[in-house]
Amino acid sequence: MGIEVVVEGLTKSFGKQEIWQDVSLTLPAGEVSVMLGPSGTGKTVFLKSLIGLLKPDRGRVLIDGVDMAGGAERDIYETRKLFGLMFQDGALFGSMTLFDNVAFPLREHTRKKESEIRRIVMERMEVVGLLGAEGKLPGEISGGMRKRAGLARALVLDPQIILIDEPDSGLDPVRTALLSQLLIDLNAEFDATMLIVTHNLDIASTVPDNMGMLYLRRLVTFGPREVLLTSEEPVVAQFLNGRREGPIGMTEEKDSATLAREAADGFASAPLPPLAPQLEPSPGLGPRRAAERRRRRVLTLLDQLPPAARAEIRKAYGATAPGRSDAEQATLTPPPPLPTRRSGT
Amino acid sequence: MSAPPRTPSPLLGPLRQTGRLFTLAAEVCRAAFRRPFQFREFIEQFWFVASVTILPAALVSIPFGAVIALQVGSLTQQLGAQSFTGGASVLAVIQQASPLIVALLISGAGGSAICADLGSRKIREELDALEVMGISPVQRLVVPRVLATMLVAVLLNGLVSVVGTLGGYFFNVIMQDGTPGAYLSSFSALAQLPDLWISELKALIFGFIAGVVAAYRGLNPRGGPKGVGDAVNQSVVITFLLLFFVNTVMTGLYLQIVPPKGG
């Protein structure tokens, strides 16, 4: 099972430019979370702060009792081995083939035999659909392939926490949809805590258990997906609809004159898109163990949520409640090992 | 809200850079003893640095030995001390010329390549990827490179000393009609073993400086591919400045500490 990530009062600025301040949230263990936000709101900076690549000005990031923001260097390096991070453009080692890239963490951190390394690498390459390209250099393949190779490398040490930076950038809609499914399947298989940073609405509306949004140097909200997807907040509503009308402008914040004009035109209150159902793992994988944990967690939270979100959660869990008991039983029996199941899909 | 951040004084910039350079140097020294040692990377880098520096070093050292021999020979001739040409020119070559030639070549040929390599890895986020995997780039990449430049510097210093001395001998004996006997006897009258030690020690330290500065600039390029180019440029210039400064200090110390043989 994944590890809980607790972020407390994180603040980061570069020189005088403040990126965001006082971000506090908890990524629940084993669940999939998405951090949304317009371009340039410091989503990638947030991701890098979680793993300790960038040092925030204030605040803590607690993972298993280790503070990734200000802890001892030695502890941070140890804790990082629990992480898998998929960089925006893969961040593959340019001088190594894809195979060596994916094998790299295994060779550095484990004493596995070369034959075993080969088996594991090939397995991960198959998961991300790169079988046959393992001899290529990163310079010889497309951006989408580099991304997937980066994902394979992030997965190779069976991470407890997987951070994914803009999985959709540079991918076509079909590949993005397939990748969304892959991410849910990965969560079903590894039960790792996942944080996806994106501004892709399809991923945001179908993949996560929890969602947050960064805007104007602060965290607008973070909570169960229903909260954000039904939110009446103008920023969120504009973003989820991808509309021009609303508080978000080309330079992050629109001036008040434009806003007033839009309000007069009556655009600002268009309805939210209907709530899309969350993706289920591919057939044969069994239910995600996180789904049941989340159900219990969210139901206890129910009283604190806004009414619209409450209604959606009731609808989702009420409707699937009879089927849940099977799912609950299935969670008790561990799912069969991964490679055999993969070959069928 | 916190207090508005203070604007740092522009005077502090160079100091901060210097501090970070020394921090990296200290970190390299510490990480050099941390297991596992990256032997493969070390051999590869050693081979690379050696292969780009051996030939230029040998080619530079012949004329360099020659000009020193010619200049010193001409001076001693005017002073009437021609029999001491050998000792003087050999000492100049071994103590001063050789470590500097080695360091300049290592910094210019090897250090610039190291800086460009690390810099492009940095902007491609490869170094971040290493850190995310829990691997220190300093231990994995910088330590082998710095040790490689140090070892190459020491070995190359021997080569340059020999070639430079032979060049000086050739020019003194053949071109200036010096006698081989006087050349050799003045050599053994003035030169002593510590001269060779200080030469190798200088080469070792210069190699360290060249490696650390190249790595430092490579690890901190400013903004994109252009930044890497600038970093390479700066690394060579900074290394040169540091080398001549450190050389002055070391030479001064040596002349104070080790008594001259001829005196």
TrEMBL record, chain A:
Residues 268-293, 310-345 are annotated as: Disordered. Keywords: ATP-binding, Nucleotide-binding, Transport. It comes from the Bacteria. The keyword Lyase does not apply. Residues 5-241 form the ABC transporter domain. InterPro entries: AAA+_ATPase (IPR003593), ABC_transporter-like_ATP-bd (IPR003439), ABC_transporter-like_CS (IPR017871), P-loop_NTPase (IPR027417). It holds the Pfam family ABC_tran. GO terms for molecular function: ATP binding. PROSITE patterns: ABC_TRANSPORTER_1, ABC_TRANSPORTER_2. PANTHER family: INTERMEMBRANE PHOSPHOLIPID TRANSPORT SYSTEM ATP-BINDING PROTEIN MLAF, PROTEIN TRIGALACTOSYLDIACYLGLYCEROL 3, CHLOROPLASTIC. This is ATP-binding cassette domain-containing protein. It comes from Streptomyces physcomitrii. The lineage of its organism: Bacteria, Bacillati, Actinomycetota, Actinomycetes, Kitasatosporales.
Automatic annotation (TrEMBL), chain B:
Coiled coil: none annotated. Pfam families: MlaE (PF02405). Keywords: Membrane, Transmembrane, Transmembrane helix. It comes from the Bacteria. One of its GO terms (cellular component) is ATP-binding cassette (ABC) transporter complex. The keyword tRNA processing does not apply. One of its GO terms (molecular function) is phospholipid transporter activity. The chain crosses the membrane at residues 46-70, 90-116, 146-171, 196-216, 236-257. The keyword Membrane applies. This is ABC-transporter integral membrane protein. It comes from Streptomyces albus (strain ATCC 21838 / DSM 41398 / FERM P-419 / JCM 4703 / NBRC 107858).
